[in-house]
Each structure stands twice: as structure tokens, then as C-alpha cells.
Structure prediction request, 100 residues.
Amino acid sequence: MLLLAGCTATAPTAGERENFKRVMDRQVGKAIDDPDAYPVYYRLRLLTTKPLPKGNTQQVYAAGREGKCQVGYEVDGSRRIVGWSVVEKPGECVIEPPRP
Prediction:
């Protein structure tokens, strides 16, 4: 019974996943190296950078609990975030929502 409780406590909740999406959506328009940008503020580890067909680049970072989520930011020539995506392990991409 304790094992089941332990698994339940670490499984991502719908609220955590939705909060992650809201936080990532708010990154669009920020400079990728802005001190308030998610990858900088949380000192995420950059995993890869690759050019995209329309001239932008994709930067993939280890995020989420224990760095198990891989989130990609599409960055334009002026270093602005123009989009984001979960590259790998979407179930690990969570942020705890603020507590009331």
C-alpha cells in the first residue's frame, strides 16, 4: 500500500501539466537570454541547438523534475523566443501550480 501511495505522489497532475503549458506560453516574445526567461532563470542545461528550415534555431533544454523533460524553444535571428515544444518525455514536463 505504501508503494502505491509513493507512486501516486510523484505522478504529474493535470494542474502541474497545465501550469507548465501556461509558463511556456509566457516565454514567447522574450529574449532567450533574458534573465527572466525560463531557461536562464532556472539555469536549465542546454542539450542541443539545431538550425530550422525558415532560418530560426531550435534550442533544446533539460527541464521539469530531475531534468527528464526536454523542451525546445524556437528562437529567431533577434534571439526572441517565437515558439516552444516538448521534444521528449511530455509526462515529465510539469511545474507545480501556485498554492492558494
Q: What stands out?
A: Residues 1-9 have pLDDT under 50 and may be disordered. Residues 14-25 form the longest helix (12 residues). The radius of gyration is 15 Å.
